[in-house]
Specification:
single chain; 247 residues; MetI-like fold
Length: 247
Amino acid sequence: MAITTAQVGIGVLFLALWQWVVDAGVVAEFSVSKPTKVWAALTAYVTGPDFWADSLATMTETLVGFVIGATVGAIAGLMLARFSFFDAVLSPYLTALNSLPRVALAPMFILWFGIGMASKVYLVISIVFFIVMIATQAAVKTVDPDFMMMGRAMAIGEFRMFVKIVLPASVPGIFAGLKLGTVYALLAAVFGEMLSSQQGWGQKISLYSQSFQPDAVIAVLCVVMLFSVAINGLMSLAERRLLSWQR
């Protein structure tokens, strides 16, 4: 209860301070707007005709790209951690690909796959894949050696040891990568929409920025933030369920 009260108090204090500095003329309203106007813009957007279409577009791009990228990334991370030969052979190429700035490549994704959802989905996949792969590989490699020794002492086969010992012990590290992947998946989808899109939260942010409507921009950013918090909360819930055996 005390934590919730403190969290709410910080939020209320921030909004009150924001409103005060704008009303007092300390900061220009044109540049940052103020909470009352942002709330009005948020209400107008949520109740407007474009909200559900934009939300469906961005959430679909984010979730589809995340699921594909995370699945392939987790499998690749497990395989690279399990087979050191493939890790040694492929590591330079994977490092080189991961070093490519996806921000600079985003226009190329639009050129290759068009301005529709496909280009954003592939952009999300390209980012989430490496995040989850690296996290998974690191999680498997840092499994407590004592667990492995116990498995060998009990004459457990390699496959059963991987399934019964290595994989459960790696779950916290894998979920750390998944949580980070959800954040970057949403950022990639929104950024792709800002470059070129027919609908989506990113498209609205770009449109409102170009028309100098900071209250509307911040309103859409609030929607993005709430969705990010929601999916991160779902990931935390899934992690607690999978790790219930630890308690």
